[in-house]
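G.,

No rush on this.
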Amino acid sequence: MVKDIVVHLDGSAEDETRLSYAELLATGQGAHVTGLYTNVMPDIAMMATPEAAAAAATVFTELEQAATIQGDATAARLLARLTRSGLPVELARCDRRIAELSQAATSAARAADLFITTCPYRGGDGPNWDGLAEAVLSDSGRGTLFVPPGMPARGPVQRILVAWRDTHDAARAVAEALPFVATSTRIDLVMVDADQNEGGAPAADIAKHLTRHGGKVDVKAVASDGRSIAQVLIDEAGRGAIDLLVMGGYGHSRLREWVLGGTTRDILTATTIPVLMAH
């Protein structure tokens, strides 16, 4: 079961969206919730040339003090918000430069069962957390629940779509999803463009595995018919009124995936339902 959830908080309006999922899952699983508040501190290296270092140092000190004071106010507000849930909660505050916050989030995720953050690559105001999302997914060794911005949790996870290929990443994602399997009402195990070598025993085996964990599994082989794999999965999720998409992160090497795009990035850019990924 999921007993320890870390949810990324940054003081923005999206905190409420992320918290809605954390609180829903924690209530259903009897879990503890840690709000990881990432307070971005100024970076003097980005402020001035070496020739202007002295003047920049004065401005930097003022900016650092302002960021700390603002962080104090935001942390107090977030702790009060967490406490109102009635769940076992705590606030972990991290005041660092934005380049250092990805590692802090990754470390926090390693000491939990699940990390919740917003889907990256959506733009928007405020700090860019794409790097943080990538780092947690690729380096934490834990499952990451990506939630679409502005779309709070609608209710319990009952209908799950597992995007299955006989790969390491897909198997890791299934393992992270097991706490949700027993309480689900239906699991669609979807294989896109599976040939005979991929669509036989491995799919039957993973279906049996999910059934032994209490899942009610329907295996589906779906042809892409010219659509991207991401679009196929999104279409299947809509057709099945799916509450949670489960899939491995990175189908190729990280370099190819992030430079050329790939299913991972396409899904995170377009999904309107939460996605549980592991790598």
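When you get to it, here's the other one too:
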Amino acid sequence: MSQALVIAHRGASAHFPEHSRAALLGALDQGAHGVEVDLRLCADGRLLLHHDATLKRCCGDSRPVSAIPSGERARLNACHRRPDLPPEAPLLLEEVLELLPSTLTLFLELKEGPEQLPALKRALGKRREALILISFNGQTLQAAGALLPGLPRLWLRGGARERTRSTQQGWLAWCKMNGLQGLDVEAPQARGTLAQECELAGLHLGAWTVDEAEVARSLQEKGVRWICTNRPAEILAAL
């Protein structure tokens, strides 16, 4: 049994504000094998690290991400919920690519539709190594295969309870039909035989978001390839 890779969910976000520079560097310090980030389009067509549609929760600004030009980021604070930390402007994807070593795997979650892909292609430039595209949006993943050939793509699937085997078989069939490399599922979906069935189909399986040591060990034993967590140091120690 090989050790599952530990992927920092929005950085080391149990210890620092999600998607902040502090969280990304914290993930490095804690030894994470990779980092997962969410991407949304700004008003001027650049990609901002942000999960929610609005800036309210993380930056204290009620506007949607799509309403702000990227040049206004300096007026925002990605750490506004942590007054003990220095203020930080939210990061653009280009800044993340410069901040983190190119050997660290980046899982790039596209929160919107295929309209994000031209901006993604511009931001990445010629870089293709250690990048994985993930999305819940099947159309986005299909379009990414055409616009960014060669980049691994994973279909995100969620749910608080394990789905039926026939549903999961449908997921595998869709991935195979569209040339995806695998699934990235909410942890309850990986409790059964999905990892083994992915392997038989020539696909990979990852799970999110796992902060409990016992759950992480169980998923690793089932053959899950990577585990996304807010607590990379603790999960690394558990595995």
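The chain has one domain: 5-51+92-238. The mean pLDDT is 97.

Enjoy the weekend,
O.
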